[in-house]
Write a structure and sequence with these properties.
332 residues; alpha/beta; five-stranded mixed sheet; 19% strand; binds 5'-O-[(R)-(carboxyoxy)(hydroxy)phosphoryl]adenosine; binds zinc ion
Length: 332
């Protein structure tokens, strides 16, 4: 079965072609980082306009790379939420048009579900697993019991982990998106240099909170003054990152222990973080828990994961009609 995946939920225009639910024949992404960089975050109106500009060339690129034409497709999968509604509508409208013109069945895919299943693009793992989904828009913890079986355990009460990275990077004038830059800068700093606070939730909660940490970094920068903190950039980055990683790892391991699920999967842009990957590997190793993370390019937004998720549902006969709408707040 040949399935085209389309992803336009935020600021990446992406298309992929997947064979038989697993084999990636093409996976193309056009990033808008240069457009949003000067603003230090995604500007929704600019994002949708960029999607309009790039969607057709990206689709063409993916089909060409896979060596197929539209008429070869057995189905199409497209992210229909959550995300920026203007961005989602671009992908969804184009897919509806293709589906109608060529009579190809399509399904709308929940972007979060696609992230949770992205690991299957690279390896088969057994259910159940605890999934930590940390991106620019979400920080969520689930028990994944199978395809379609997602038990919500906790989520962020304020900023998402990636959002905290992006905002701290903006405060320090490091550019957008901040995650990758801070990850890189932190390599030459000490994670113990500055004892930034860790938020703690009440016993039994698997929730997260990153806004206190973000504010603490802001106060630290103010107190030091630009002349001084400019000299400590790497230490600030490493110490901030250590606090984020700590706050992500602790509830995830606790969920694994308390639910008796000895398998953890990381997903979302922040799962590309090198420190998170090392710390998670060490800590799970100590406790005999298996941990899996997709390659960095499959952690951040991509259409291959959308195609994988859509292939699964298409194979089981799911079809969407042309009344399907984009839903900015779609939940799992
Ligand atoms: O999954 P994603 O591409 O888009 C959303 O669905 O949000 O995640 C993007 C987020 C951004 O906030 C970005 O700063 C963060 O993931 N990110 C990272 C790294 N690479 C991307 N955060 C920490 N370390 C990284 N290496
Ligand atoms: Zn995402």
């Amino acid at each position: 079965m040949l399935v085209l995946g389309v992803e336009t939920s935020c600021d990446d225009t992406a298309a992929a072609v997947l064979l038989d639910g697993r084999k990636v024949l093409a996976n193309v992404v056009s990033s808008q980082d240069a457009v949003h960089g000067p603003f230090g975050g995604v500007v929704p109106e600019l994002a949708s306009r960029q999607h309009v500009r790039h969607i057709i060339p990206i689709l063409d690129g993916a089909l060409q790379k896979a060596g197929i034409g539209l008429r070869d497709l057995d189905g199409i999968a497209v992210s229909c939420g959550p995300g920026l509604v203007g961005s989602l509508l671009v992908g969804l409208s184009v897919v509806k048009g293709i589906s109608f013109r060529w009579g190809i069945p399509y399904v709308g895919v929940n972007h979060l579900e696609a992230h949770l299943l992205a690991i299957f693009l690279e390896r088969e793992i057994r259910f159940p697993y605890i999934a930590l989904l940390a991106s620019g828009g979400h920080t969520l913890l689930y028990r994944v019991g199978g395809f379609g079986d997602y038990l919500f355990l906790g989520g962020t009460r304020d900023d998402a982990a990636g959002e905290a990275y992006d905002k701290v990077a903006k405060m320090m004038g490091l550019g957008y998106p901040g995650g990758k830059v801070i990850d890189q800068l932190a390599r030459s700093g000490s994670p113990k240099a500055i004892p930034f606070p860790r938020s703690r939730m009440k016993k039994g909660s698997y929730d997260f909170s990153f806004s206190g940490l973000k504010t603490a970094v802001w106060h630290y920068l103010e107190a030091q003054g630009k002349g001084r903190w400019e000299q400590q950039k790497a230490d600030i980055a490493a110490s901030f990152q250590e606090a984020v990683v700590d706050m992500l790892v602790r509830p995830t391991l606790r969920a694994s222990r308390e639910l008796g699920v000895d398998r953890i999967v990381l997903a979302g842009g922040v799962a590309a973080n090198s420190r998170l990957r090392v710390t998670m590997t060490e800590r799970t190793g100590e406790e005999g828990i298996e941990v899996y993370f997709p390659s960095p390019a499959l952690c951040t937004d991509n259409a291959a994961m959308v195609a994988l998720c859509g292939s699964h549902w298409l194979e089981r006969g799911r079809r969407d009609d042309f009344y399907l709408n984009a839903d900015a707040d779609l939940t799992l």
